[in-house]
Specification:
The chain is built from 7 helices and 28 strands. The protein is α+β, with helices and mostly antiparallel strands.
Length: 454
């Protein structure tokens, strides 16, 4: 019998789903459990991607193959016991759900052997996992002409390259245990925690597969030998080609990621925005049924070089910021925008400039929070005070540096004086009212005397 917990099975199934891109349980491959005296190896595979997970332990040797939905049935978020037992061609799965015993039976399917011949493993920087996750997000599974659904791993200079035909990401600085170019299928497995946060990462390669080893998980990617990958390297300009550069402050980059999703036209084709780099860094958007556009002003960011106004898909602009780039370089309003640092380059195609939104007085304007440098030690700070009467006001001036207690005491004294002035004013008003009432009473009395005399 193979014994696991419901939580383990949930974790295993969700990682397999992510790695193999499973969208339907009915079309999912089976999952094989290979028990040995040193542990159990859990494996699943499609034509181009295979995954395996090793759990240490002492098990009686046996091979059990279950359908994907069997794991869905018994998984959970708790550490309740799950027993998987094979009897001939039948497999029984038993677990506890809410204190109630559950049992399900399945046919033992054809086993999967995802293990490659164990080549020598070469350690690689853990940053490789994040780089692959970023690379996979720059691929296109629908392309048929070029291998845009693949990641190119170039051994000669340790480069990772991907493109979906509209954007391209090139990352370098890695060391691969081969010298040629290798194309492997993209998989979202690199975004899974078990790969993204693995402590020990290494690579190996056979004639047909590249294997990524991450702690007790292994991902096998079939080499796409007949696929063609576009030459993206020649499309990345050098920094000297830029005529305009937009420099994003860190605070504005975070603001941009949140705000652009809420700007008008977010659901329209290409999610267009206009970026205007003139006296300020402004981003404008307007949906087809709106007359007035909304404008974001990035108050902490700046432009260097020539003034420029261009249209772009907001997702690429936000992605450049999310990747950590803080400078966006441009040649013209028609040429691709690009970002570069010491190890990476990101480039994307701009939209036509014909629909650019010009500034006007009717714009709905939103400014990012200003992050100004702190005051110098000798700067003077002025605190406005409430008015004591319509003709007088009090202001408190404090020299820096001054400790907080001194400031508080000065403010207290000023407020005390203002309160005293207010009380005097109230007393004067009350006295005036009393005097007015006395005058009114006297006038009434005189009037009554006049009536009596008549």
């Amino acid at each position: 019998m193979i014994e696991l917990t419901r939580k383990q099975i949930y974790f295993i199934r969700s990682t397999i789903r992510q790695a193999l891109g499973i969208t339907s349980a009915r079309r999912a491959p089976s999952i094989t459990f290979r028990a040995t005296p040193v542990g159990v190896l859990i494996q699943s595979a499609t034509e181009h991607v295979a995954i395996e997970h090793h759990i240490a332990g002492d098990y009686r040797p046996e091979v059990i193959s279950l359908p994907y939905e069997a794991l869905q049935a018994c998984e959970g978020k708790r550490n309740d016991h799950v027993g998987i037992c094979r009897d001939g061609d039948s497999v029984t799965v038993q677990w506890i759900d809410g204190g109630i015993p559950q049992t399900a039976q399945y046919d033992n399917g054809a086993s999967i052997d995802a293990s490659e011949s164990r080549k020598e493993q070469a350690p690689i920087d853990r940053a490789f996992m994040q780089a692959m996750a970023d690379a996979v997000a720059t691929t296109d599974n629908e392309s048929t002409r070029y291998a845009l659904s693949c990641v190119r791993l170039r051994g000669s200079d340790g480069q990772i390259a991907t493109t979906d035909g509209r954007q391209a990401l090139i990352q370098s600085g890695f060391t691969f245990p081969w010298d040629d170019d290798v194309l492997v299928p993209a998989t979202k497995a690199f975004g899974a925690k078990v790969f993204l946060y693995a402590a020990n990462v290494s690579l190996s390669r056979s004639d047909d597969w590249v294997s990524i080893h991450a702690d007790d998980w292994t991902l096998h990617l079939k080499i796409q030998k007949d696929a063609r990958f576009p030459n993206v390297d020649d499309h990345i300009p050098g920094l000297e080609a830029a005529s305009t550069t937009m420099t994003l402050a860190d605070a504005d980059a975070e603001f941009l990621a949140k705000a652009t999703k809420k700007l008008p036209a977010a659901s329209e084709f290409n999610a267009p925005v206009t970026v205007d780099l003139n006296g300020s860094v402004a981003i404008r958007a307007k949906s087809a049924d709106q007359e007035v556009a909304t404008e974001l002003i990035l108050t902490n960011s700046q432009r260097t070089g020539e003034e420029l106004r261009f249209n772009t898909n907001r997702e690429y602009l936000s992605r450049a910021a999310a990747l950590g780039f803080r400078q966006v370089h441009l040649r013209t309003a028609d040429s691709p925008a690009f970002c570069r640092d010491d190890r990476r380059a990101f480039i994307w195609a701009l939209l036509g400039k014909e629909g650019a939104i010009a500034p006007n007085d009717k714009l709905t304007r939103i400014e990012s929070p200003s992050h100004t440098p702190k005051s110098s030690p000798r700067e003077r700070t002025t605190f406005p005070m409430p008015q004591s009467n319509p003709h007088t006001s009090a202001r408190l001036t404090i020299d820096k540096p001054t400790n907080v207690l001194a400031k508080a005491e000065a403010l207290r004294d000023s407020l005390g004086q203002t309160l005293s002035d207010t009380r005097e004013l109230i007393s004067a008003i009350k006295a005036k009212r009393k005097q007015n009432r006395l005058v009114e009473s006297t006038l009434r009395s005189l009037k009554q005397l006049e009536n009596i005399g008549a």
